[in-house]
């Protein structure tokens, strides 16, 4: 075996162990008994110790120094292994294990405290998560910006100043569009009975139509919907509110976007460093394209209107246009995952500013709830009523995902670019959506982006798929055209 072959064999085992750790995390959120949390935290810490040891092993460093890639795919794999190795050797093994242990415990404590609206019960463990992530950031940054150091885990090459500039460019047009919609005629609402069984039946049907392969995955329930895994085992979750079926259906489509990316990676790349999404921003481009630009399109809403009446009977709306307006209603609300396309990025901007301040030490955990509530009132004009509708609504901070939130808006920006290119390249996308068939659009995504995994860096991934450098203009033009029509 060549040095490169030995390196890839080493990495294949590491990647397989990483998949086991990810599946253990899925189990914890989806089906693990709550009483198992203390033991699961120790198990997660043990797995992280093993993974960290493999990712920082001297023999891995020696192989990296000697290995020569045989081709462009090999070069990409070497790039990803080097990036991981260079980052991991900066983080002490005991810190990596402690982060895994504490965030595993924090996840359960967050869920319990959120259900009770008990912020004081959650703050101590959140403070410990923030302390550990600051320590990790300091090790990674080596004197540079702490938040930028954490962002590299989710968006290689990105930085906070770039994100802030993007948000500054988007905010005025989003705020103007928001005001136009809020000043317009209110959108109609669904009414009727939406039993859990019917929602899940329809969610399974829709997931399959969007290309999710149930032979290599499954759909379960969780407090916060998510997708987990890659290749031959990619699992998704959703949640059910019997008063609001859109919550279940559109959460499912969103997670299917993530899952189809992972299922769509070329099988030759599986259990290699490039056998996964290129970044969280690129990942989010898939989920937001599927959920919004396909699933909330006027064409698809026309089909879904009829299908929902088949499943649920009277839904309180009498026309496809009314249904389309209900699906895309613009309303100020507390919950990011339920936000309309106009408000969504404003939710992300709030979280970006707060978590950046937390990691930089400009904001402490004890002051987080007050800072959140004041910012939310300023941005959305509404007083937060409970912690579950405020700073405790997302699982991300409990599990230490600081630096992750801005990738949601970056994903929206990428989605705008991708769908503009797909509509340019593929006639008939809307005709298919009107029949409940998104395959023309999802097929374009698989061919132009998904199959390549992390072969290319994020920006190049979008450029190769679309033929153009990414910008916010396609997204903003799409939003202004869509909501200008809905709120004339």
UniProtKB/TrEMBL annotation:
Its EC number is 3.4.17.19. It catalyses: Release of a C-terminal amino acid with broad specificity, except for -Pro. Binds 1 zinc ion per subunit. SUPFAM superfamilies: Metalloproteases ('zincins'), catalytic domain. GO terms for molecular function: metal ion binding; metallocarboxypeptidase activity. Pfam families: Peptidase_M32. One of its GO terms (biological process) is proteolysis. Zn(2+) binds at residues 254, 258, 284. Broad specificity carboxypetidase that releases amino acids sequentially from the C-terminus, including neutral, aromatic, polar and basic residues. This is Metal-dependent carboxypeptidase. It comes from Jannaschia pohangensis.
């Amino acid at each position: 075996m060549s040095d490169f072959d030995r390196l890839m064999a080493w990495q294949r085992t590491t990647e397989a162990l990483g998949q086991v750790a990810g599946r253990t995390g899925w189990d914890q959120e989806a089906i693990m008994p709550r009483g198992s949390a203390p033991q699961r935290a120790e198990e997660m810490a043990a797995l992280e110790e093993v993974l960290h040891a493999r990712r920082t092993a001297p023999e891995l460093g020696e192989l990296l120094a000697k290995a020569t890639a045989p081709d462009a795919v090999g070069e990409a794999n070497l790039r990803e292994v080097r990036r991981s190795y260079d980052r991991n050797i900066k983080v002490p093994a005991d810190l990596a294990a402690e982060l895994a242990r504490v965030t595993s415990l924090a996840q359960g404590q967050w869920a319990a405290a959120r259900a009770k609206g008990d912020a004081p019960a959650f703050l101590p463990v959140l403070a410990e998560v923030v302390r550990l992530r600051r320590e990790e950031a300091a090790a990674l940054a080596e004197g540079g910006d702490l938040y930028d150091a954490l962002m590299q885990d989710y968006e290689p090459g990105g930085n906070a100043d770039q994100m802030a500039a993007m948000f500054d460019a988007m905010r005025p047009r989003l705020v103007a569009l928001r005001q136009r919609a809020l000043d317009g005629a209110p959108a109609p609402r669904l009414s009727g009975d939406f039993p859990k069984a019917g929602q899940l039946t329809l969610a399974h049907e829709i997931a399959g139509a969007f290309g999710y392969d149930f032979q290599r995955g499954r759909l379960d329930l969780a407090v916060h919907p998510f997708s987990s895994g890659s290749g031959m085992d990619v699992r998704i979750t959703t949640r059910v509110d019997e008063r609001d079926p859109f919550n279940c259906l559109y959460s499912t489509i969103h997670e299917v976007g993530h899952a189809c990316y992972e299922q769509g990676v070329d099988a030759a790349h599986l259990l290699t460093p490039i056998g996964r999404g290129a970044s969280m921003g690129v990942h989010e481009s898939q989920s937001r394209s599927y959920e919004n630009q396909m699933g909330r399109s006027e064409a698809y809403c026309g089909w879904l209107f009829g299908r929902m009446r088949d499943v649920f009977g009277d839904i309180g709306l009498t026309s496809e246009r009314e249904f389309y307006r209900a699906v895309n209603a613009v309303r100020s609300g507390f919950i990011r995952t339920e936000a309309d396309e106009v408000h969504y990025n404003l939710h992300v901007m709030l979280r970006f500013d707060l978590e950046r301040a937390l990691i930089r030490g400009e904001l402490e955990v004890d002051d987080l709830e007050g800072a959140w509530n004041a910012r939310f009132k300023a941005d959305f004009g509404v007083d937060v009523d409970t912690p579950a509708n405020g700073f405790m609504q997302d699982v991300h901070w409990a599990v230490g995902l600081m630096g992750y939130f801005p990738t949601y808006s970056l994903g929206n920006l990428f989605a705008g670019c991708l769908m503009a290119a797909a509509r340019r390249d593929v006639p008939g996308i809307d005709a298919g959506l009107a029949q409940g068939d998104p395959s023309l659009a999802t097929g374009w995504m698989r061919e132009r982006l998904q199959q390549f995994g992390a072969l290319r860096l994020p920006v190049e991934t979008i450029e190769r798929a679309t033929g153009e450098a990414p910008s916010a203009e396609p997204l903003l033009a799409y939003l202004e055209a869509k909501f200008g029509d809905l709120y004339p």
